[in-house]
């Protein structure tokens, strides 16, 4: 009986170890089409990125997930005073990776940097096609004035 209880509790805690999850972003208040944008234009964001590709594994439920991590310098803006818009100009990837709506940055940025991690199903294979995405990233204030875009070319040569 003790073994059954041990197995029950042990397996109930192991289930979450095999789950794959990513943080969701809080949606920025949508633009009101009846109100003209107002306020000062925010600074164009300073950005950097990193791409991690999926891979083949029978032991990792997230192995087929690729991620694009974008870090945006807060440049002195408080976390809830601005949002971010990710506008995809062109993409070699058929899946939607970036949100269609504006989103807030992290509630608690680390060292003044907001980190966004965007997952997509990259395939459970060690062979990956090249990736190229052109995205404009805007900072937006609550009056819906957009900054000038930071244009980011996200490239990864893939694996063959």
Keywords:
single chain, 160 residues, mainly beta, Immunoglobulin-like, four-stranded antiparallel beta sheet, three-stranded antiparallel beta sheet, 1 helix, 34% strand, elongated
Protein described:
With 160 residues, the protein is mainly beta. It has one domain (20-156): Immunoglobulin-like, CATH 2.60.40.10. Helices cover 8% and strands 34% of the residues. It has one helix spanning 2-14; strands at 47-52, 65-73, 82-91, 103-104, 113-121, 131-141, 150-156. A 4-stranded antiparallel beta sheet has the order 4-3-6-7, with no helix packed on it. The protein has a 3-stranded antiparallel beta sheet with strand order 1-2-5, with no helix packed on it. The relative contact order is 0.26. Residues 5-17 have low confidence and may be disordered.
The assigned CATH architecture is Sandwich
> Strands of the biggest beta sheet: in what spatial order?
4-3-6-7
The N- and C-terminal alpha carbons lie at a distance of 52 Å
Return Rg in Å: 20 Å
Question: Roughly what is the average pLDDT, rounded to an integer?
Answer: 80
Tally of alpha and pi helices = 1
Q: Please indicate the percent range of residues in DSSP E strands (runs of 2 or more).
A: 25-35%
């Amino acid at each position: 009986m003790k073994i059954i209880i041990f197995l029950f509790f042990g397996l109930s805690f192991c289930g979450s170890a095999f789950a794959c999850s990513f943080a969701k972003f809080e949606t920025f208040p949508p633009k009101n089409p009846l109100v003209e944008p107002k306020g000062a234009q925010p600074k164009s964001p300073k950005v950097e990125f990193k791409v991690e590709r999926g891979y083949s594994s029978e032991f990792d439920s997230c192995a087929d997930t690729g991620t694009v991590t974008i870090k945006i310098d807060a440049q002195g803006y408080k976390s809830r005073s601005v949002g971010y818009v990710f506008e995809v100009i062109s993409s070699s990837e058929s899946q939607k990776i970036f949100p269609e709506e504006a989103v807030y940055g992290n509630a608690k940025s680390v060292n003044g940097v907001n980190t966004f991690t965007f997952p997509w199903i990259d395939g459970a294979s060690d062979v990956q096609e090249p990736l190229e995405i052109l995205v404009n990233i805007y900072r937006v204030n609550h009056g819906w004035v957009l900054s000038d875009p930071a244009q980011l070319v996200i490239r990864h040569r893939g694996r063959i």
